[in-house]
Amino acid sequence: MFDVELRHLTTLAAVADEGSFGRAAALLGYTQSTVSQQIAALEKAVGGAVFDRPGGPKPVRITPLGAVVLAHGRDLLARAEAMATAVDRFKAGDGRVDIGTFQSVSNALLPSVVRRLRDEHPGCDIRLFEEETDRPQVQDLDLMFFDGRVDGDVEHRKLLDDPYLLVARTGTFPEGPVRTAQLDGVPMVAHPAICDQARMEQALARRGVRPQVVCRTAGNETVLSMVRAGLGSAILPQLAVGGADIASDASLRVHELEPALPPREIFLLWQRGRTHSPLAARAIEIAGEVAGRIGGRS
């Protein structure tokens, strides 16, 4: 392996371009003896002369060996410059961040996070991966939004409590809060029994309340479409309700539940011990600020 340093290649290119050691020294801000020392070190590393030195006012001439070293050296210098630029951009927050998410966060919280990240770092690369799962896999992601606590090799930051609300066709229940006992045996459209949905249904069962689930679907819009169609009512987290603009839909009513069910908890997860990029660290900060505003409106 040649013991060639980038500074030696920079000096080689300068001498070849300028035609003399003196002009190369002036270009690089070196003394002429420093240029000579660096070329000598390069020649020792590659095992031969890289310049013919005719002496006097005549320009130095690159040797065949020097031409080979210069051709590859320019490529290495370009790659080193590109790496330095990429590192500078990374440190400035213009790197890439991979974020796992799920639909109600994607609709109600994440747009504000993405907008602010892109406003602050127009050159950043944001990749989003949406999945409804009760087994979050954070290994290949920088960050992941999830609606529950996770054990194992995972760190987390709690963002907010997401209260549950009842969505029903207008006239199904009187205006105002609905007691959870009134939901025993009533038709209900629900999400699949994974993630916090299962915990919410268990909380109802502990109160002796067992709605008749007539449809399970992962899509928030499908749930609401079935409620509009009269198939049943739905208990949904506030993020899902707020992201659907139900207030403008005269066919639906949103009711608080009494007593309230335990809220869904929204967390931001990442692999334990991971060193965050500046962009990922900023995403965590912004997510906390956005979640704080949303939680304050609850």
What does this structure look like?
It is built from ten helices and 14 strands. It has helices spanning 6-18, 21-28, 32-46, 64-91, 103-108, 110-120, 195-206, 220-228, 238-242, 278-297; strands spanning 51-52, 61-62, 96-101, 125-130, 143-146, 154-162, 164-169, 178-179, 187-190, 212-216, 234-237, 252-255, 257-258, 264-271. The protein has 298 residues and is an alpha/beta fold. A five-stranded mixed beta sheet has the order 4-3-5-14-6. Strands 11-7-12 form a three-stranded antiparallel beta sheet. Strands 1-2 form a two-stranded antiparallel ribbon. It is rod-shaped, with a radius of gyration of 32 Å. A hairpin with an 8-residue loop joins strand 1 and strand 2. The protein starts with 5 loop residues before the first helix and ends with a helix. The model has no long low-confidence stretch (mean pLDDT 91).
Q: Which descriptors would you attach to this protein?
A:
10 helices; 5-stranded mixed beta sheet; 21% strand; single chain; alpha/beta; 298 residues
Which residue ranges are poorly predicted, with pLDDT under 50 across at least 5 consecutive positions? Answer: none
Report the oligomer: single chain
What fraction of the residues are assigned to beta strands by DSSP? 15-25%
**Secondary-structure content class:** alpha/beta
Which sequence of SSEs, written as H and E, runs from N to C? HHHEEHEHHEEEEEEHEHEHEEEH
What composes the largest sheet? 5 strands, mixed
User: How far from one another are the termini?
Assistant: 64 Å
Helix content: 40-55%
Kindly report the average pLDDT value: 91
Spatial order of the strands in the main sheet? 4-3-5-14-6
Q: Rg from C-alpha positions?
A: 32 Å
